């Protein structure tokens, strides 16, 4: 008991008697413990933020994508990717029985099938009012509409044949629609059909046959001849042709029409509504409420099946046209007879240019859809013909050495666009442009049957009103949105005008438009019954599955999704991809130049990286563990250096106690008791500072974490003081009489502050090694932590979710690096301070012999520089070795980092010497010289 009281008194007396040193040690322990506590909170905060970010953004429209066996590209397997056009090029492969098997798997919330049927050849009309271009004073005139067809943000362009509008004041008789051998006219005339315009369509002007419509075979929007006829009546109104009589109007409006491939897909209305809220995005009649109908035989037309469809409210294709409007005066009637003469006469007339315009294709699409929707209320009408149905394949890629992709072009197949048994039906003008997909015509009229299926628009759906999902976790929803493609380099961005690249009018182009027409799975038999498609018996292209009970990103949710996917694969043998936890990942793709002036483009396309969320969570857990370890190592080393410094500072006193009979265990207890006391006080201080400091740094530090500061400080202090205490206990009384620094081996003239400072480090090798080691740990920690950060970011960046998370964790990295380096710098400053204390008399002698304060400061700075170079080199070497192990390669960037680390260590240690150098100026020179004497 007496011995314990003596130790306590000794510890208390020493703390009071050497308050300055005790405070310095307390500050060191407090800094280390508080830093560790706040860093722990920062790392935990970062993990919570990361987990919260992942949880908030991980859920997409579906968790599992089921495709036919063999649909997955090797590229998708190699890179764990899912291409954005993963479904659009798949025409069937899954049966209705496959869908039933998937739905029967326990744990599924929704299993929504989709069937790509093919692309139809749909016309879109832009109304153009040319009333103000008509000169009422002219007897006959022609309004000429010159067109330049545009696509791909204007990079693809082609001149088209003009549109002619013939306006006459003379009497016109219009042909009536009807059967029979004779053709009747609105003026009462009757002419045998084969004797009028060689069986083609025309008019009678003042009783003369005018035949402006040539017989045309395979034509495109760019090559077809389009002629409008109008009569300007004496009352100023316009009369235009119609099958059952000429309507009149105050305005002369023509239609500039072009063809667009419109992909039609079939969905299960109720499943689709549960998956994305399709019913809420629909205006008009929902698919499940619109059964198919059959048309009548009005006008001699045969009866046809009409399949109800929903049309998208937005247009995806980037196609338009610029038009130039001009007027020509005709002094003579148009020639009778062959159409070539009529067209030549209109082209030969001198024209005056009036104005230019750019077609509003978006408004044209809305107008066309509204017209078709209005017709559907009268019995659906004839919206989009099913006589031209194309099934387009997927894109194949080549991988470049830099990891980018090159889309492989395919030859143009002209026969794929031939409409069997029909002539004069225009096709999109870009069908012979550079193609990246194979095209197969599965037209229903290939067998000669005149009966065809029509699509009647019963409503529209607005993709923007569908259930929204976070863009950070968006999976391919090509049913409702096109792939996102932007320029990958500045040249391409400039060519695109900093806009996205959109699908064009080529069905075989690189980008595929989402389905613009949706019908019901129940109507697939009617839709495909007469086709030559291979998907009649297995019509489904994919099944999108959402798993029940999935909330955020957790081990439980991941396991639920995995088990469902595993069961689907086992029951069906199909290609099953888990999209849960995925995120868009940009891929660079090169597109070769197009036929119509478009140059080569290098674009970035958002594919989907599978398993991103799991990579993020795994990486943040691994990084947190390493970060804790590094912080603890640096803290322990700093404390060990501080305690060892205190023991060295008291070596004479401890030797005296040993000489007076204190046993080794009492000296050991006294040293550890002092360290434990300081550690306890520092822990309490860290407890008090953790909360306010965390709030200042925007780091959430819990009370549990803050309370851990006390035992952490005590345990670290005891561990750090263990070796110095053992050394003090084993010390002999004579050790206190030896100087702390070795004397020079031989006397010589000082060679200057730099040389002497470096030589002084050799005189205290242990202390130099300790200071350099402390700094080396800091530098190594910073280097390795940088490598961890690099590896961590490398595992997740390149995806939208990964990039978002990456931004959240960099603040923690910065705090950790600063803390480790700061602790190393404090250790160096402590070593230099002790060097000055131990060589105080020697430094006083140098001052007395003429050394200036600046020279003495340079001496201390040189010692700091030497420690910095040594510690920086060792730390950088260790850090680079660890970094190379983590990254898997010794890269040029790591070597550059190593060089920077050495330089940073030297600069930091030199700066750390400033405080001891300032204390040097306060040494009592006269007193020290007197004591030395």
TrEMBL record:
One of its GO terms (cellular component) is plasma membrane. It is a multi-pass membrane protein. It comes from the Bacteria. The chain crosses the membrane at residues 625-647, 667-691, 703-729, 769-795, 815-836, 856-886, 898-920. Residues 626-731, 815-915 form the ABC3 transporter permease C-terminal domain. It is found in: Cell membrane. GO terms for molecular function: transmembrane transporter activity. Keywords: Cell membrane, Membrane, Transmembrane, Transmembrane helix. Its main location: membrane. Belongs to the ABC-4 integral membrane protein family. This is ABC3 transporter permease C-terminal domain-containing protein. The lineage of its organism: Bacteria, Bacillati, Actinomycetota, Actinomycetes, Micromonosporales.
């Amino acid at each position: 008991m007496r011995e314990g009281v003596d130790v306590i008194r000794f510890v208390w007396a020493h703390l009071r008697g050497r308050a300055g040193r005790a405070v310095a040690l307390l500050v060191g322990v407090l800094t280390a413990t508080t830093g560790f506590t706040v860093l722990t909170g920062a790392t935990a905060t970062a993990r919570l933020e990361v987990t919260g970010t992942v949880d908030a953004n991980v859920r997409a429209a579906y968790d599992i994508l089921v495709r036919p066996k063999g649909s997955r590209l090797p590229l998708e397997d190699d890179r764990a990717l899912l291409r954005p056009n993963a479904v659009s090029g798949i025409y069937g492969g899954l049966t209705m029985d496959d869908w039933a098997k998937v739905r029967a798997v326990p744990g599924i919330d929704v299993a929504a099938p989709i069937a790509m049927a093919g692309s139809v050849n749909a016309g879109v009309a832009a109304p153009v009012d040319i009333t103000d271009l008509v000169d009422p004073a002219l007897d006959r005139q022609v309004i000429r509409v010159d067109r330049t067809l545009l696509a791909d943000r204007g990079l693809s362009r082609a001149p088209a044949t003009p549109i002619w509008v013939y306006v006459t004041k003379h009497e016109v008789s219009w042909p009536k629609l009807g059967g029979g051998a004779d053709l009747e006219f609105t003026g009462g005339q009757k002419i045998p059909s084969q004797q009028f315009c060689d069986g083609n369509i025309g008019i009678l002007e003042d009783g003369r046959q005018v035949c402006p419509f040539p017989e045309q075979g395979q034509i495109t929007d760019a090559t077809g001849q389009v002629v409008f006829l109008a009569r300007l009546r004496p009352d100023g109104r316009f009369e235009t042709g119609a099958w059952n009589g000429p309507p009149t109007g105050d305005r002369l409006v023509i239609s500039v029409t072009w063809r667009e491939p419109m992909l039609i897909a079939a969905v299960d209305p109720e499943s689709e509504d549960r998956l994305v809220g399709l019913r809420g995005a629909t205006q008009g009649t929902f698919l499940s409420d619109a059964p198919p109908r059959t048309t009548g035989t009005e006008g001699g037309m045969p009866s046809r099946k009409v399949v109800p469809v929903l049309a998208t409210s937005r247009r995806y294709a980037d196609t338009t046209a610029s038009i130039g409007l001009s007027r020509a005066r005709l002094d003579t009637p148009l020639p009778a007879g062959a159409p070539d003469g009529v067209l030549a006469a209109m082209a030969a007339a001198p024209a005056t240019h009036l104005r230019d315009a750019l077609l509003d294709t978006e408004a044209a699409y809305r107008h066309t859809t509204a017209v078709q929707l209005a017709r559907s209320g009268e019995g659906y009408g004839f919206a989009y013909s099913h006589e031209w149905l194309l099934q387009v394949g997927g894109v194949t890629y080549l991988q470049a050495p830099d990891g980018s992709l090159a889309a492989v072009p395919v030859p143009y197949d002209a026969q794929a666009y031939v409409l069997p048994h029909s002539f004069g039906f225009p096709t999109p003008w870009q069908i012979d442009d550079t193609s990246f997909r194979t095209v197969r015509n599965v037209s229903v009229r290939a067998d000669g049957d005149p009966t065809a299926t029509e699509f009647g628009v019963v409503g529209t759906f607005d993709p923007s009103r569908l259930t929204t999902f976070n863009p950070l976790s968006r999976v391919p929803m090509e049913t409702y949105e096109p792939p996102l493609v932007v320029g990958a380099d500045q040249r391409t961005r400039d060519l695109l005008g900093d806009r996205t690249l959109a699908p064009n009018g080529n069905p075989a182009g690189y980008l595929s438009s989402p389905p613009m027409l949706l019908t019901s799975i129940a109507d697939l038999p009617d839709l495909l019954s007469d086709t030559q498609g291979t998907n009649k018996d297995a019509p489904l292209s994919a099944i999108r599955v959402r798993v029940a009970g999935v909330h955020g990103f957790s081990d439980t949710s991941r396991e639920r999704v995995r088990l469902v996917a595993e069961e689907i694969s086992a029951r069906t043998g199909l290609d099953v991809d888990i999209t849960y936890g995925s995120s868009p990942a940009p891929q660079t793709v090169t597109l070769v130049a197009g036929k119509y002036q478009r140059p080569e483009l290098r674009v970035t396309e958002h594919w989907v990286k599978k398993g991103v969320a799991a990579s993020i969570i795994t990486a943040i857990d691994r990084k947190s563990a390493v970060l804790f370890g590094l912080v603890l190592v640096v803290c322990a080393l700093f404390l060990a250096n501080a305690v060892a410094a205190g023991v060295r500072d008291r070596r004479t006193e401890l030797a005296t106690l040993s000489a007076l009979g204190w046993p080794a265990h009492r000296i050991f207890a006294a040293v550890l008791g002092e360290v434990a006391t300081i550690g306890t006080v520092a822990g309490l201080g860290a407890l008090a500072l953790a909360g306010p400091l965390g709030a200042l740094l925007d780091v959430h530090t819990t009370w549990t974490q803050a309370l851990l500061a006390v035992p952490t400080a005590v345990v670290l202090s005891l561990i750090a003081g263990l070796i110095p205490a053992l050394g003090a206990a084993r010390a002999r009384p004579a050790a206190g009489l030896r100087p702390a620094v070795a004397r020079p081996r031989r006397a010589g003239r000082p060679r200057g502050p730099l040389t002497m400072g470096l030589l002084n480090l050799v005189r205290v090798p242990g202390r130099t090694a300790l200071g350099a080691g402390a700094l080396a740990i800091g530098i190594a920690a910073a280097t390795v932590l940088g490598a961890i950060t690099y590896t961590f970011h490398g595992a997740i960046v390149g995806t939208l979710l990964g990039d978002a998370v990456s931004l959240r964790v960099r603040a923690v990295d910065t705090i950790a690096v600063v803390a480790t380096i700061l602790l190393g710098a404090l250790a160096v400053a402590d070593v230099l301070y002790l060097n000055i204390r131990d060589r105080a008399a020697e430094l006083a002698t140098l001052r007395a012999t003429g050394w200036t304060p600046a020279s003495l400061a340079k001496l201390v700075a040189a010692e700091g520089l030497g420690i910095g170079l040594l510690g920086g080199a060792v730390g950088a070497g260790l850090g680079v070795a660890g970094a190379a192990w983590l990254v898997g390669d010794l890269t040029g960037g790591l070597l550059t980092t190593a060089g920077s680390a050495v330089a940073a260590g030297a600069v930091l240690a030199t700066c750390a010497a400033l405080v001891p150098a300032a204390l040097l100026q306060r040494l009592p020179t006269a007193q020290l010289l007197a004591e030395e004497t």
